[in-house]
Amino acid sequence: MAAWVKGGATDADAAVMAAARLLSSAHAPVFAGLNAEVAAIRAAYDLAGRIGASVDTAGGDATYADLGALARVGAMQAPPAEVAGRADAVLVVGEAPLKSPLVERLRGTKPVRGRAAGAERSIHHLRSNQDLAVQIAHLRAHARGHMTSDAGMAETARAMASALYGAVLYDPGELGTLGIEMLQGLAMDLNESTRCFALSVSDGTQDRAALQVAAWTTGQATRVGFGRRVPEQDPWRFDADRQARAGEADAALWLASLPTPRPTWLKTLPTVALVGADAAPDLAEVVIRVGEPGRETGGVLWNEGRAGLSYRAPEQGADLPTAADIIARIAAAVAGRGAVAGRSAVANSEDA
Amino acid sequence: MPVLTLREAPPERLDFLAVNPLALSGLSQGDAERLVVGTTRRGLVLGDCFTVALDGSDTLTIAGGHERLDRVGAAMSEGAIRVEGDVGQRLGAGMAGGSLTVTGNAGPFAGSGATGGTIVIEGDAGDHAGGAVHAAKVGLDGATLVIRGSAGDYLGDSMRRGLIVVERAGAFAGARMIAGTIAAGTVGDHPGYGMRRGTLVVGGHGSLMPTFVETGALDLVYLRLLAKSLRPVSARHADLLANAPNGVPKRYSGDLATIGKGELWVAA
């Protein structure tokens, strides 16, 4: 197993002990990334609860853009397989969803079931030549019949209203909460006379797997803190980037067994990094190479097509530990140091 | 007058939900110093960061604010708090009555869900002042929020009741407004995004939503009544309506993406 402490190669036990030392001596640790298999995310939540850490995900901003609208107005949402199987009109909002292979799949196929089975599929595109949220509002005003002044908007609104099954694809990070709420309002308006669903195109991270784990573990979404023992959800306070910028976090666990864009604070904050194939000695203070789920190790991941969790077997055998194993070993070492959440425990660990 | 004097910058965010004149009036000096205000496993108590001096009166002074003091005056129902310095997020959130004055700047979500009382921020406010926190249905809900400096983006987001008076606001002021009044010297782009009802009075603005339509320059009795109610809070904002530079203010109606019963009055 490859592991490094302060840039120097070391063995697994020494790296785990260094990680436990770093995390147990921190007052306000942050667990970030969580772009990993479900078992590792579960282990991270368990350890976070023990040491009073807060938790955030790699795609936290986009996730909360979706959740913000969902919590206020609900959502008319369909999974990709349903959209591919049933939609005869698709509206792509902005540029980011165009990168999804789903759009090519939709262009090359026709609906095969439901009311629109056998019909041609029309694809419409709302370009982001100005604020996307504003454009969605403009479209909705035309769809409601409150405006008729923009011919392009009127045409798109007519196409979605006359579809048997419409779908609107968007990227939550690109559209933002206000735009998503407006888009959901548009879908709800259209459902007065036909069928229309929104589809949030994922950014490829395991945020949705983390959301499932967060929900069944804490009853809340991600961006939760355990500093006061009970889980507290606060998307502003527990934004990992904000905490690092504000100097509130004093240590971090970066969990990314899948390839993940790295935050800038990784090298400035004392960090334990559990990473896959892109592990490097200088990535963080403690770096431990773990198996990449679905490629080097087995693991349960978010299945984008089915919009659910499913097991992915390894493509190749690799003698690498899973991130869940490493976190469990760190948790055992932390428990051995007596560092659990609470004022006296921290005092004890400082004395030690 | 009870006084909390900040000894040094707090090492973490502090939660002041339980620190208000009413709560402190029933506590001994020792009990007040042992109030838990920390938010990490340090378990900080009030006495760790502040020198506490109590006298049982209903006006609390926090001498030495800090941007890490969260929920100052939150859920307060009576009395007064004066903060000499800055505060963090959720100033006066859910406040039902009393008065709250901050001489410095406030973090995001000031006055969120406040149903009564008056909040005055003499410096600047962060994003979502008078706006809704995550998963909340409404922002400001009946209180009066006065910001002497600038407010960030999303001022009064999902506001349902009450009054916000601000010198300058960022983009999306009055977004998703349900009702209530915002008076601003200037606002940024896209004021009133998704608003259903409510009133925005502005001296100047950035880009307007295409879903707002001009409905004329109108001299309504209602505007004079609104100006009269604004005058005790801010004469300058009352003058936006009563003494508009170009005569009567222009009215825009929106947001037509929703039910479109909101109004934007532009004095300039």
UniProtKB/TrEMBL annotation, chain A:
Protein name (record): Formyltransferase/hydrolase complex Fhc subunit B
Lineage: Bacteria, Pseudomonadati, Pseudomonadota, Alphaproteobacteria, Hyphomicrobiales
Automatic annotation (TrEMBL), chain B:
Superkingdom in the source lineage: Bacteria
InterPro entries, alphabetized: Formylmethanofuran_DH_suC, Glu_synth_asu_C_sf
GO MF terms, alphabetically ordered: formylmethanofuran dehydrogenase activity; transition metal ion binding
GO biological-process terms attached to the record: methanogenesis
Name by which UniProt lists this protein: Formyltransferase/hydrolase complex Fhc subunit C
